[in-house]
Amino acid sequence: MSTPGEFAHLRHSSLSGIELFSARLLQHRFAKHMHEEYTIGLNDGGLGCFDYRGQTWRSPGGSFNLINPGEIHTGQAEGAAGWTFRNLYISQPRLEQVVQQLEGRSPGLPYFPQPIVWDAALRSLFQQVFQQLCQALSEPTPCLSQETLLLEFFARLLGCHSQSGVALRSPKPETQAIALVRAYLEAHYAEPVSIDRLAALVGLSPYYLIRSFRQQVGLSPHSYQLQWQLRQAKRSLHSPAPLSDIAIATGFYDQSHLNRHFKRAFGITPGQYRQGHTQRAISSKPPAPNSP
Question: Going along 96-242, which residue ranges are E strands?
């Protein structure tokens, strides 16, 4: 793209089968083409238009474009403001895996009958998913967190906008299963854990487990694991161990990763917490006896 102000970036995400595309079009026109993947696009601004299924469709800011694999389409900006958008390209095998994680079975691949939809809740989820997948390209991000957001996004997308929909079971009290998952996360707080591993542990589908866990505990499994990491890090700060060693030992990627989450949770950095604890320990010591 040679026009000033135009750009297009395609990146492979850290999750297999998912690519991230972001672009701003002014004069560039995408010729007729198709993708092997599903295209899930959020229009961030301006106005785009594309030919698809024998019609010309217009994509205003805030709307979604949903294009099935193998379907011919074009793409261009309409108007001087251009067209800014972000796409998730998800492969058919990956989406089939997501459907299995949502349902606990394989009802086949979804089909999107409407190429343009509006959904404010879906827009918020898309922004979280896209931001976290981009972030994971530059810094380590827990797989459990990425998988959870992805399942929440596709549960909404498929449940509201695919032809067959997704019939999600209402979570029921799963006291024994949730207790097992909590115990596992507490014992493996410093290790990478996948949602499939947790689901297999208790024989529940991954997304059903996420919803049941949140209903009973008030947190997602990832957030619960993070709380245990912070709890253990806080205890370790009572020792003289270097902060960098404490960060690695409690499951954080480095000291800055620990600092960020610790301050977000407690309002102070680990160093400030340690300093305050040391000062309290000194002030609570009994005074030395007077020399004879």
Answer: 116-117
Closest C-alpha to 192, from 262, 143, 263: 143
Main-chain dihedrals φ then ψ at residue 104, nearest 5 degrees = 80, 10
Q: Is 48 helix (H, G, I), strand (E, B) or coil?
A: strand
Token code pair at residue 109: 């691949």
pLDDT, tens only, 89-108: 999 999 999 999 997 665 67
At residue 215, what is the residue type? Answer: Q
Q: What DSSP string runs through 221-283?
A: HHHHHHHHHHHHHHHHTTS---HHHHHHHTT-SSHHHHHHHHHHHHSS-HHHHHHHHHHHHHH
Question: How far, in Å, are 37, 184, 224, 250, 253 from residue 191 at the CA level?
Answer: 32, 11, 13, 9, 11
Tokens representing 277 are: 């604890």
Give pLDDT, residue 292: 47
Task: Confirm whether pTM is higher than 0.90.
Answer: no
Name beta bridge partners: 87. Answer: 21, 41
Q: State the Cα–Cα distance between residues 95 and 102, nearest whole angstrom.
A: 10
Q: What is the pLDDT of residues 37-94, one digit of tens each?
A: 999 999 999 999 999 999 999 999 999 999 999 999 999 999 999 999 999 999 999 9
Joined together, the tokens standing for residue 270 give 């680990």
Among positive and negative, which fits the CA dihedral 111, 133, 8, 16? negative
List for the chain the helix, strand, coil content (%; round to 5). Answer: 45, 20, 35
Interaxial angle between packed helices 221-236 and 175-187, expressed in degrees from 0 to 180 and rounded to the nearest 10:
40
Distance CA 226, CA 215 (A): 18
Structure-model confidence comparison of residues 140 and 66, the more confident one: 66
